[in-house]
Structure formats: C-alpha cells, structure tokens
Amino acid sequence: MEMVNALGRRKSAVARIFVTEGTGKITINRKDLQDYFPSSILQYVVKQPLMKLDVLEKYDIKVNLDGGGFTGQSQALRLAIARALVKINADDKKALRSEGFLTRDAREVERKKPGQPKARRRFQFSKR
C-alpha cells in the first residue's frame, strides 16, 4: 500500500494526514497521540473510525494539525482519518457514514457586529 493523504476540518482547525501500513502509531505535529491529547476522551474521538473498522493496529498515521482548540482539532482529525480509510477501502464508506464520521460539521463562530458587545448580544436599551 502506498501513502494515502486526506484533509479534515472543524471550526478553524485543519488536519492533514498521511496514512501508511504499520503498527498503529499516530504522530501529531511530531508528538505521540498521548502527549498531544492528554485527555482520554479526545484520544477516543480520534480513534473512533479506526475502532469501528477494527484496524487500530494496521496503519501508521502522521498528522499536521493547525488552528482551533483541542476539541476542534480532535474532530478535524477524526474526519480526516475517516476520509483516508474510505480512500483505502471504498467498502467501508457505508459503516463510517452511518456513524456520522464522514459528515463535515460546518458550524463556525459567528462574527462580532459593530456597536454590539458580541455577535448577537446588544448593549442594554435605555429609554431615558
């Protein structure tokens, strides 16, 4: 198998991944998965598509993660891994789609409007 690359985005986070056959090592920005995401919940989110297809120890994944916070980055990485697994084996698409791993979450932060403290919050109205 040659190297397969994929892209995942969530909020302002972008994950570019490169998948090769290997032993299940996930490297994010030259750090191990456990070092980059100390939270076990975020590690679980990243590994969800791999666990669904039972290929956790089959592929080595190198990741360039940029932008956003921890949650956005982990979900962007999950989307990128799911897309790469579909590129490797198209038969897995139905299983990953049913779990929602191939759906790009398009929600973004709404911009702040001028003359207001936040995007929708307004300053208190005073009649007199």
Number of strands: 5
Coarse structural class: alpha+beta
The number of helical segments is 4
* Helix-strand pattern: EEEEHHEHH
Q: Give the CATH architecture.
A: 2-Layer Sandwich
Distance between the termini: 73 Å
Describe the strand arrangement of the main beta sheet, using strand numbers. 1-2-5-3-4
What global shape is seen?
elongated
The major β-sheet equals:
5 strands, mixed
Uncertain spans, ≥5 residues at pLDDT below 50? none
From the alpha carbons, calculate the radius of gyration and give it in angstroms. Answer: 18 Å
CATH-defined topology: Ribosomal Protein S5, domain 2
Beta-strand content bin:
15-25%
Q: Quick check: average pLDDT?
A: 95
Q: Helicity level, as a percent range?
A: 25-40%
The CATH class assignment is Alpha Beta
Domains, number: 1
Describe this structure in words.
The structure is a single chain. With 128 residues, the chain is of the alpha+beta class. The chain has one domain: Ribosomal Protein S5, domain 2. 34% of the residues lie in helices and 23% in strands. The chain contains four helices and five strands. Strands 1-2-5-3-4 form a five-stranded mixed sheet. The longest helix is centred in the middle third of the chain and has 19 residues. The radius of gyration is 18 Å and the shape is elongated. It starts with a strand and ends in a 29-residue tail after the last helix. The mean pLDDT is 95.
